Amino acid sequence: MVRKPTLVAGVDSSTQSCTVVVRDAGTGALRRTGRASHPDGTEVDPEVWWDALQAAVAAAGGLDDVAAVSVAGQQHGMVVLDADGEVIRPALLWNDTRSARAAEDLIAELEPGDAHRPGPTAADRGGGSGRAAGRTAGAGRAPDRAVDLAAGRAAWAAATGSVPVASFTVTKLRWLADHEPGNAARVAAVALPHDWLTWRLAGSPGLDRLVTDRSEASGTGYFDTARGTYRRDLLGLALRRDDAARIVLPRVLRAGEAAGTGDPGLGLGHLVLGPGAGDNAAAALGLGMGPGDVAISIGTSGVVSAVSPHPVADDSGMVAGFADATGAFLPMAVTLNASRVLDVVGRLLGVDHGELSALALAAAPGAAGLTLVPYLEGERTPNLPGATGSLLGLTLASATRENLARAAVEAVLCGLADGLAALEDVGAPVERVRVIGGGARSEAVRRIAPTVLGRPVQVPEPGEYAADGAARQAAWALAGTVDPPSWRPAPSRTYDGEPARHVRERYAEVRHRHVASPHAR
Ligand SMILES: Nc1ncnc2c1ncn2[C@@H]1O[C@H](COP(=O)(O)OP(=O)(O)O)[C@@H](O)[C@H]1O
Ligand SMILES: O=C(CO)[C@@H](O)[C@H](O)COP(=O)(O)O
């Protein structure tokens, strides 16, 4: 009798869509996929993610014959739950910049003495001491602008591994406290998109059954990434609550640790649930990344991430010191403007992605001096949440469709090249660079990337690497082994090209002038 292979599923609940892959647990071979769209917007009712997940599962042929599932998701989104487990308000996503001012306030409020708080925090024991915790109790204190922001940035980097920006959960919680104090007072638990979806798959049991993993916890802004412990004093500081010890935070599972089983009431009782991960950490697992490997993901966000055996803490805020899904670290630089820049320029030109790519490749490097500063949604790296975009260098000669298409591709890649340089500056090992995400489907992106980055890039065959990583994690949780299963890495093609230094130099100069100008904001 031929034994049926064991199947596992991986979910990627990303900004624009939900993707499900079903793979062979032993070999990693792809069996089925399904996809459903998410709505536009930076404020979303989590229920739509649940609906999309179910639609994507159905499109992937269901989970009846699947033994384990794990969920990867867009990072940082604030899902606040009341004591009954009900969502208090729509989630604020990673690309919602309304909490930019809150980020600045929080930076100003943390002092160097608050950075280290080893072991269980005072707040964990139900009390509060020290300056940060004291300010928690003294909720409402206006931030002192005289406090040195540089010292605050250093204190946050030392405390959590990252300097908070509007994307981080901690700043969204401060925004909630300042703008919706009634909602902030009702918060009984804070989850991230993937934590919440895993909890829903388990049947929405008690809040104490919420789980997460290091990669996600490290993106909250209230987790000490190097030590692997929550900083409840920072949670209380953000929410202006002195009872932060009572707020439920998802239990942080070990890499590969099972999160229990699915809900029998939903027909999922046979499923082992994996711990899940942030989408970038899941993609690293899906690509089989190790130290020296870098992934450049061109999705809604532009992400440059590298696996590092050591934690990273960058005071400048260019690099976020996150964790990965295997027990190591995943420092990353993240831009807000990536694939959507190509989408919008394609729309302006009235062309689809293929035609946009052909136009860009028909122009010369540097687009005859036409340079796009692509801050169409503000920007996160560098931290310019209020910035706008700009197109400079228009002349009778440069104003062509080809040059505009090229300027868009070069702009996205220049932002990512700056991120790669920032990772190298903080000592992240950089040996092999791979380009993934929806934007990597563009021939122009693939061919122009090595010229802008100044090094060859590998482009794995088009795939759903975050969902694949989640599937590998599901197989890992099912096997209960120390290491994840060995799956054959996806074949990739190497792209190389003559470095075009002038493109980055011109971009840097134009960007600098634009950001300094009063018209930029
Ligand atoms: N051939 C292509 N060229 C450029 N961009 C593309 C192409 N195909 C898809 N995209 C873009 O990629 C994005 C989706 O990529 P994805 O990595 O799934 O994003 P996310 O994870 O943020 O949801 C969309 O903005 C889409 O328009
Ligand atoms: O905020 C970050 C990482 O810090 C983003 O990378 C989100 O995780 C969203 O990812 P995509 O939907 O663009 O893949």
Automatic annotation (TrEMBL):
What this chain does, per the entry, is described as: Catalyzes the phosphorylation of D-xylulose to D-xylulose 5-phosphate.
Residue span(s) of domain Carbohydrate kinase FGGY C-terminal: 295-478
Q: Which residues form a coiled coil?
A: none
Give the protein's recorded name: Xylulose kinase
Question: Gene3D superfamilies in the record, alphabetically?
Answer: 3.30.420.40
Q: Where is this site: Important for activity?
A: 12
Residue ranges of the region described as Disordered: 112-142
Q: Which SUPFAM superfamilies match?
A: Actin-like ATPase domain (SSF53067)
Superkingdom as given in the UniProt entry: Bacteria
Question: Which GO molecular function entries does the Swiss-Prot or TrEMBL record give?
Answer: kinase activity
Q: Which InterPro entries match?
A: ATPase_NBD, Carb_kinase_FGGY, Carb_kinase_FGGY_CS, FGGY_C, FGGY_Carb_Kinase, FGGY_N, Xylulokinase
Instruction: Tell me which residues bind substrate.
Output: 75-76
Annotated source species: Georgenia daeguensis
Q: Name one Pfam family in it.
A: FGGY_C
Catalysed reaction(s) here are: D-xylulose + ATP = D-xylulose 5-phosphate + ADP + H(+)
Q: Which family does it belong to?
A: Belongs to the FGGY kinase family.
Q: Which UniProt keywords apply?
A: ATP-binding, Carbohydrate metabolism, Kinase, Nucleotide-binding, Transferase, Xylose metabolism
What lineage does UniProt assign to this protein's organism?
A: Bacteria, Bacillati, Actinomycetota, Actinomycetes, Micrococcales
* List of catalytic residues: 279
Enzyme Commission number: 2.7.1.17
Q: Does the record carry ATP-binding as a key word?
A: yes
Q: Where is the Carbohydrate kinase FGGY N-terminal domain?
A: 36-110, 158-286
User: What are the Low complexity biased-composition ranges?
Assistant: 132-141
